[in-house]
Write a structure and sequence with these properties.
Layout: H1 9-22, H2 26-37, H3 44-47, E1 50-56, E2 62-68, H4 70-75, H5 83-97, H6 103-108, H7 113-126, H8 139-159, H9 161-164
Helix pairs in contact: 1-2, 2-5, 2-7, 5-7
Length: 165
């Protein structure tokens, strides 16, 4: 069987999504997408909690799938994580394995726009609404983003970092 630790991240992602889809596990797929978003599928210490196997679908086709042992992953020390990585991992553990997570603590700290959107997309998928709901930019969001980008550019210009970038 193929070793999830040595597989490419693209292959591992494909096997995990196939496994979730074949099991009609929209929660599994949502969780895997969060792990992938924050770069955790690249980590060897996380991959130690993933297994692969060959399954046959209803049409007698064979598929290599991967599954996460969510309970083992929740109990594991997978090394240092950034704050957003930790919080998105917690949401993934909850969606994929039913591990309880305090949503208030997940959203309490400053989550970047992309991380917040990843959580929204995962919850939308887990609810079975991925094809029905679109997360889009409002004019108010675009204005806030423009202002932040201008402040960031101004800061880089004042510190001289822009010239080095």
């Amino acid at each position: 069987m193929t070793d999830p630790i040595t597989a490419s991240t693209d292959k591992l992602r494909e096997w995990l999504i196939t496994g979730g889809d074949l099991a009609e596990g929209r929660h599994q797929r949502a969780a895997v997408e969060l792990l992938d978003f924050v770069g955790l599928l690249d980590r060897r210490d996380l991959r130690a909690h993933i297994t692969t196997r060959l399954v046959t679908d209803r049409d007698d086709r064979h598929h290599l799938i991967a599954r996460v042992d969510w309970t083992a992953l929740a109990a594991a020390d997978i090394g240092p994580l950034g704050g957003a990585q930790r919080r998105l991992l917690d949401v993934a553990l909850s969606l994929g394995g039913g591990i309880r997570v305090d949503l208030r603590s997940v959203v309490r700290g400053e989550l970047g726009d992309a991380h917040a959107r990843a959580i929204l997309a995962a919850v939308t998928r887990a609810l079975g609404l991925a094809d029905d709901v679109q997360i889009s930019d409002t004019p108010a969001y675009l204005e806030r983003k423009r202002e932040r980008d201008e402040q960031h550019a101004e800061f880089l210009g004042e510190t001289g970092s822009a010239a080095r970038a």
